[in-house]
Write a structure and sequence with these properties.
- By secondary structure, the protein is α/β, with parallel strands linked by helices.
- The chain has two domains: 2-138 and 274-303, Response regulator (Rossmann fold, 3-Layer(aba) Sandwich), CATH 3.40.50.2300; 140-272, 3-Layer(aba) Sandwich (Rossmann fold).
- The protein has eleven helices and twelve strands.
- Strands 2-1-3-4-5-11 form a six-stranded parallel β-sheet, with helices on both faces. A six-stranded mixed β-sheet has the order 7-6-8-9-10-12, sandwiched between helices.
- Helix 1 (3-20) runs parallel beside helix 10 (275-290).
- Bound molecules: alpha-D-tagatopyranose.
- Alpha-D-tagatopyranose is lined by residues 35, 38, 40-41, 116-117, 172-173, 227-229, 252-253, 273.
Length: 326
């Protein structure tokens, strides 16, 4: 087996960087500012800390207690005001509203890498926003398409389906709903998307909204929960209504809760993102940039593991379940 295959992409990059780090290099300090406290970002933080350990980098982490620009911006400003950060790795909670505060951070000399969510259209080479080094995350439009095909299969290609999501203008979940709706509209003429609600990343709101939809649309066939709290809320509402296994749920994000509901037959498909890789790679990119590497890609898609009842116990798949306390 070749060395590249043995180590994997991240391992190879680390080996190269560590070899390069034999050359005298300034030590860097990185701020890590994810979107909110949730299992997805907890796993991302593990990746960040593992890379920091491997590369000898100091990380300053601040995790917002709730989702949103109003919470994230003052934390960002405080990080900038510290004066000791060379890079900030951040998941912007709004693709437009976070541009100005991040541009200000960048103009003060801090380089920016976005993880999971992006700014503008995410094309930092030719798009409207070009100051971040790279956007590292999932191809969420494709994730939405995969979710749609999974749900369509679970409901035999017909019926009413509903989307529960977090907030408008968040690049990740917005793309998931777009990809999902596009596939339902173009590939499944007998499936009707009856609604999309925003729960503001609050699980209780997701439960209420899904329960209300179950009442409003008594023959609802399926629900797409576009992230951790949306999927948890959707799954909980379906179980509360006694409709587990009758109304199918597709869950974006591989939490232990989603996997339990998969085993119980409530959830038919779980889409695992790769937050560990996102975090690890973002730190590697900062390190490489500080060493003078100028060829870093402006976009990296980290891929998915698609989990269903047939492969959930396959160790090659199960390793992508978010292994954190919930
Ligand atoms: O789905 C992830 C993340 O990709 C999204 O941008 C926000 O929600 C999560 O953190 C899950 O809660």
């Amino acid at each position: 087996m070749g060395i590249a295959k043995k180590l994997g992409a991240i391992g190879v990059l680390t080996a190269m960087l560590m070899a390069g780090s034999a050359v005298a290099q300034e030590k860097i300090t990185i701020g890590f500012l994810p979107g909110v406290v949730d299992p997805f970002y907890q796993v991302m933080e593990m990746g960040v800390m593992a890379a920091a350990k491997d590369l000898g980098i100091t990380i300053v982490t601040q995790i917002p207690p709730t989702w949103g620009v109003q919470v994230q911006t003052p934390i960002l400003d405080a990080m900038v005001a510290r004066g000791d950060l060379d890079y900030i790795i951040l998941a912007p909670t709004d693709k437009d509203q976070m541009i100005a505060p991040l541009l200000q951070a960048n103009e003060s000399g801090i380089k920016i890498i976005t993880v999971d969510t992006f700014l503008g259209d995410g094309d930092y080479a030719n798009g409207p926003v070009t100051f971040p080094i790279s956007a590292i995350g999932s191809d969420n439009t494709e994730g939405g398409r995969i979710s749609a095909r999974g749900l369509a299969k679970a409901i035999n290609g017909e019926g009413n389906v509903y989307i529960n999501s977090t907030n408008p203008n968040v690049s990740s979940v917005e793309a998931r709903a777009i990809g999902f709706t596009e596939v339902m509209d173009n590939e499944f003429p007998d499936i009707n998307v009856v609604g999309l609600d925003f729960n503001l990343n609050d699980m209780n709101t997701a439960v209420q909204q899904t329960s209300a939809t179950l009442e409003r649309v008594p023959d609802l066939a399926g629900v797409f929960g576009t992230n951790v709290f949306s999927a948890q809320g959707a799954g909980t509402a379906v179980v509360n209504a006694g409709l587990g296994g009758v109304v199918q749920v597709v869950a974006y994000d591989a939490t232990k809760f989603a996997i339990e509901q998969l085993r119980e037959g409530v959830v038919s498909l779980v889409l695992a993102q790769k937050p560990y890789d996102m975090g690890y790679m973002a730190v590697q990119f900062a390190f490489a940039d500080s060493a003078g590497v100028t060829s870093l890609p402006t976009k990296v898609e980290t891929g998915f593991a698609i989990i269903d009842i047939n492969n959930v116990d396959d160790p090659e798949i199960a390793r992508f379940i978010y292994q954190v306390a919930e």
